[in-house]
Protein: Cyclic di-GMP-binding protein
Amino acid sequence: MTHTPLTRGALRHTRRPLMFLASSALCLGGWVHNAWAETAAAVPVAPANVAPQAPLGSYSHHLTLKQLGRLDTMNLHGVEAADSVSFNIRADEVVNSAQLLLRYSYSPALLADLSQINVLVNDEVAASLALPKDGAGKPQEQVVNIPAHLITEFNRLRLQFIGHYTMQCEDPQHSSLWAKINNSSQLELNVSPIPLKDDLSILPLPFFDRRDAGPLNLPFVFAKAPDHAALEGAGALSSWLGALAAYRGASFTSQVGQLPDKGNAIVLVESKEAVRLGGLAIPAPKGPTVTLVAHPGDPRGKLLIVAGRDSAELKLAASAVALGSKALVGNSVVIDHLDSLAPRKPYDAPNWLPSDRPVKLGELLDPKLLSVSGYNPGSISVPLRLPPDMFNWREEGVRLDLKYRYTPQQESNNSSLLVSLNNTFMKSMPLPSMKSLGGGESLLTLLQKDESLPREAVVRIPLGSAGARSQLQLRFMFDYIKQGECRDIIIDNMRGLVDPDSTLDLSGYNHYIALPNLGVFNDSGFPFTRLADLSQSAVVLPDGSGPAEWGAYLTVLGRFGDSTGYPATAVQVVSAADVQSVSDKDLLVLASGDNQPLLKQWIDRLPAGVSGDSHRFALSDLTLRVRQWISPDPAANQRKPTLSVSYSGPRSSTYLAGFESPLKSGRSVVVIASGRPEGLAEATAAMIGGDAYKDSLQGSLAVVKGTEVTSLVADEQYYVGELNLFKRVQWLLSQNMHWMLLVTVLGLLLIASLLFLFLRARAQKRLS
Structure:
């Protein structure tokens, strides 16, 4: 039975007539849902509070406000204040019912009859909570039932506080007008699945759904043990999905010859004949083939079959999905031709800010989000993904040419536009009032048709406080002038706008960085992601690699895709015996146990080693430092090894190490190794990070123990990149005091010699 002609809205409109047919709806497989459209009511948490009965086949999602993006408490202040978070519903789900467990507190000074907290979904009131005196000043919990018909694909949950402290004239910004919403408040969504059609036009659904805020976990199934070309195709797919998942994080597992019991999966088939995997029959491919089918053991699951008669065709089909999925239509297609792509240029990753031209803020953020209203609106946050090797030594900072407009007040003292980077204050520009500007005809000529005043400013943003993922914050703050008793009224006529033509210019910076640095490897995938398609990178798999190593490889490439926003279509996979063929590339080396010969060949370069039950680790003063290890002065970051520890024990050590490639100077090697295959999953989980990880990967050697990451060595041994001649001379002299003294002496001698010759020539001229 096919239900796809029914839309999400059609399902909702059928709820009320079907209330008396609830039992019949359950028999239809759970997708025609039990009606529930009662008026929302807020009730205290108690055993008597019973949620609407969920249909058969349904399941629930539990999301806290913190998981929805609210990292701190909502502080609502004033006569009327509001804050909001967004939540989305997957394309293959429909909501049966929703509840909000609200944890909050409010001021004891509020008048119970006039104060309330309103819960709104998509600007429709779902509930209004009274604020009685007996609960004031203490943590409160209430469950709010949200009508399902208010919820669409993209939703905004808004919490509005309305407060009053007196029946007489009041100050709308009085300190007693407050309410706080804890970010542990939880939204529960009971949903039922909706069958999706087997059509490639829905890609990347259902494997990735941008409405889903959770991390992406997806298995890759190989019909048989893959060769290197097949793994390169799988890497293109995992990096494509990693780029889509972005901040959510993406991890991948792999298995051979067996489908997962349920859920979605990507199946890679290299065969000239028909293949059978469990209950799935795959016909013999006629060329590079891409097919979308239902999971034979799970009606909710989908399988994306990428097939070819050989590994070259398999890789071609995978590249077609990673680069051209938007153009694919139908249940199954055969890729006739895929034009060779133009080679990528350094630092041209779609996610990274261009470093060869000024970038408009309108390119980085929807222009609609560059305008705000109100006396104290939130910050305008512009996401910045910076190339990690920007050389900022003795630089003024990145030039921000800021153009903005605002509504000038009649009178104000402290109105300003604040510029910050990652919550670090950079500069404040005053927003003059009509009175301070003098008024008159000259001011009227400056005002725009919307009565806003255009202004310009230049801000220098130092890169020392910038990370791979940074936020440029622009905040308009308008001064609230009190008029006196019974005259204080907040009028919502204050507007601020940042012109999308404002530019950020990185073009004056050199690309030069000290390596190894596992911090930039983890955050940006550097130096592998210097070219977005990884055309100058190679992955060296261990001898006899299996699903554990393949899963780690796919997850790491997913991280690279998250950094660049582009699939790794040109990565090369080799074995240790063929490493000389990729000597001119940056190398990612995977190892588990004693299956990677390169670790023995390069043991003098590695800051760590595991051989059988013997373990060796180099240590520096890094672990003894109390202060943050990163310093604006690169020389201060050097933590050279001071001792080496060796011990015998079980094969449980997992570590990441970086060093200069023994095959070619200026090239890098990053090793991800563990004493056991399953330990590689711990390393990739540490790369993705999360709330469970207090520390991140840093230095040239990091040891992973469960959710604990310890950086042991930060030894800057080599530099990659280029400096212009003047900057290079400055840098070399700053790093070597003897050269500095020698150049100073030679400079003085040269000046003295020139001065002597000049004076001598002048004397001879005078005497003659």
